[in-house]
Design brief:
323 residues; mainly alpha; 3 domains
Length: 323
Amino acid sequence: MGFVASALLLLAMKALIRQPELYRSPETDKPPAWWIRGLLIFTCTGVSFAHGSNDGQKGMGLIMLILIGTVPTAYALNRAMPESQIVQFSANSAAASKIVEEKAAGYNILGNPRPAVMEYVAHHKINEGTYPSLAILIKDIDNQVKQYGSFAKIPAEAVGNTRNDMYLADEALRNLMKDKDNELTKEEVGTLNAYKQSLDASTKFIPTWVKVAVAIALGLGTMIGWKRIVITVGEKIGKTHLTYGQGAAAELVAAGTIAAADMYGLPVSTTHVLSSGVAATMAANGSGLQLSTIRNIAMAWILTLPAAMVLSGFLYILFLNRF
């Protein structure tokens, strides 16, 4: 998609923006015109922002996995949630519980409600035990929070159970709202979604210091490794040097594609998208491609996943047997 879009954008730019200097390669000792510099600053900023948003999620997710695994009592629940949100959580719980209880009218559950909810999450099939079990689970979660007054006061030995219950209810609601057999009105779906958002805010959170640390790490990585990236992308993909117009077209498409993927939760690589865009502008411009570089990039794309799988599996087995 990035390849085709970048090629089409460059051709459209050539048809609409008839400024020859935009389609010339940079001169060593002569800076480009002020409007070209402004255009490139704009497109580079877009790529940087989209890149940070996309790759930043991966870094923050890995750090949170480590934190939850090593110090679960501190990071399993959002202990920094303000009191106002706790009040809202309780209100959303009551509203959601009322809706689910109405759907469960005529059915009762004795004992632990979790197996029935887990069965629905696993098979996505509503039965007579789904609604009553989910209603009890929602009430149990609300009672756990009310018992201690806030997430910060939940004792360490209870944190794991509360978090697991929240995740289970969250996943059940996510599937239920998409289920064609849920018999829920639009207003009821909105109420359940508000409760789901409260659950997400309680468990799927990232502390500010983690965001700052990842942003600094991405910035430092770019500062250190920029030269190799710039030379490869700008000089080694095509047979001629990248022009200002080609760079702008590739960056605009890369920023838009990565931002859209970020919005819809799609896994994409910034490097893949941008490299494809640059290659497309070279092809559209008739500049030709350096097949050796394209081959190396393609091989890296193909081998990354299996190599990472093999290495991760090897390390897991090694650590499992040694520790």
